[in-house]
Amino acid sequence: MGLSRRLALLTAVMAVLLVLAATELSTYLSEEERLDDYRGESIALAESWAALLEHGAPTGDAAAVQAALARWPAERLARTQAVVFATTPAGLIAIGRSPRADPVTPTANDSAALAAEHTTVWRGSGRSVPWEVAAVLGDPHPWGILRVTVSTRRLEDWTSRERRRAYLFAFASAILVATGVGVLTSRWVARPLALLGRTMARAHGGVESAPSARLMGPEEFRGLARRYNELRDALVARERESDARAALLALEERARGYDRLALAEQTATEFAHEIGTPLNTVRGHLQLLRDDLRAAGDQPELERVQLVLAQVDRVAAIVRARLGARAWPAPALRVTDLTAVAQRILQFLDPSLGQAGLSATLEETVPALASCDPALVEQVLLNLLKNAIEALTPGGRVVIRTGADAEQAWLEVADTGPGLAAQARQHLFEPFATTKEGAGTGLGLAVSRRLARASGGDLVHVPSARGTVWRLTLPVGEPHD
After folding, report:
1. How far apart are CA 460 and CA 441, in angstroms?
2. Which helix (H) or strand (E) holds 359?
3. How many C-beta atoms lie closer than 10 Å to residue 470's C-beta?
4. Of 73, 60, 134, whose CA–CA distance to 101 is shortest?
5. What pLDDT shows up at residue 441?
6. 232 with 208: CB under 8 angstroms?
7. pTM for this model (two decimals)
């Protein structure tokens, strides 16, 4: 039940109770006043007829008394009747009564009035005879009593009619008042409250989308709507200020990142310049060692030196590109077997894996031919495997999976390590974001993604129940006949 209906019902109940209470009180007071008037009229009637009887029957002659009572006005404002009792040695006996008077017998009140020689009034018995008057007859020697009985039936009938009429008016007034209160409450209270409630409900989507409250209804509700609008405006202003501060902090953080990148670029250039000469020296010695092993026919050692020499050549190419163009070398795209690349890198890292107490396996679902620069893929795979080696404890395991579908070839690196924390996942691929507590630069993943995208693919983190999984995707390469 809504507020307006509850108020209407409460008003109706209160109106009925108040009107009925007022009616009952007014009717009671009026009835008591009329009864008092009846009492006075009863005394006056009795005394006047007592004087009349004393004049018409001074000695108490029964015939004279009855003749006088024949003219008794039985119907006045109320129904009345009279009985005359004469004194005898045997007591009071009735010697006359008014027309249509009920037979009555003398009472103690009659005897008391005769003994006191004074008019006595008392409440009679019965619902419609509240007043009875006993007037003494005979002066100076009382010879009898005139008892006058005044009925109040008409007064009771009038009271009953007034009460029914008042009840009818009470219920009609209650219905009218309740209807008026319901209509006014619905218009002045329920509608403004409902509108304000709907407005506040729409604010759950955010203060920006929250509408302003309409000013309607009494001044109290208008003031409430104004305060809501002021609060909304204040929250909107604060939210915009917060967004502006967040944007400023983001710009400052980006600027610091650019500063670090610029410093890293400068450091990388200086580093490339410094390691160029010793790197060429190392390359020359490895070539001489390769020639000696080839001449000696030591095939296993020759393959290992060729692997190392290939990686030195790749690093030397990066250094030359860094010094020449201040950028990573442009990808030399060709059809590349990702499984063969993974095999070479696993063979190259076999000593590191063995030293760390780790095992590594290669799984191929379908032939994975990609259009890419194998040197850049090797760099990405080296970075991912290096991270896995540093994250795993002895006994850990690394799995490399390769495969392809109609649109892309892919290479996955999965380990059985502790995985990435939620905070670390929020800053993946950001330069200088690292979880190695000073042991890393935070550039490996950023560089790896840059290289993957330069080759037309991408590097993503794959959520998993255990460990960490990275997926490198590349365009599918068409095999040559």
Report:
1. 20
2. strand 359-364
3. 23
4. 73
5. 46
6. no
7. 0.40
Place of tokens 């129904």: 79
Query: Is residue 474 within 8 Å of residue 457, measured between CB atoms?
Result: yes
Which uninterrupted H or E stretch holds 459? strand 458-462
Three-class SS state of 169: helix
- Mean pLDDT over residues 83-110, rounded? 88
Q: Residues 163-170: contacts with CB within 8 Å, 24+ apart?
A: 163/23, 163/24, 163/27, 166/19, 166/20, 166/23, 166/26, 166/27, 167/20, 167/23, 169/19, 170/15, 170/16, 170/19, 170/20, 170/23
SS3 assignment, position 3: helix
Per-residue pLDDT at 68 exceeds 50: yes
Three-class SS state of 33: helix
| Domains of the chain from N-terminus onward | 3-158 (3.30.450.20), 331-475 (3.30.565.10)
Cis status of the peptide bond prior to 140, with omega within 30 of 0: yes
Q: Helices 219-296 and 191-201: crossing angle, nearest 10°? A: 10
Strands across the sheet with 120-123, in order? Answer: 91-97, 80-88, 144-150, 131-137, 120-123
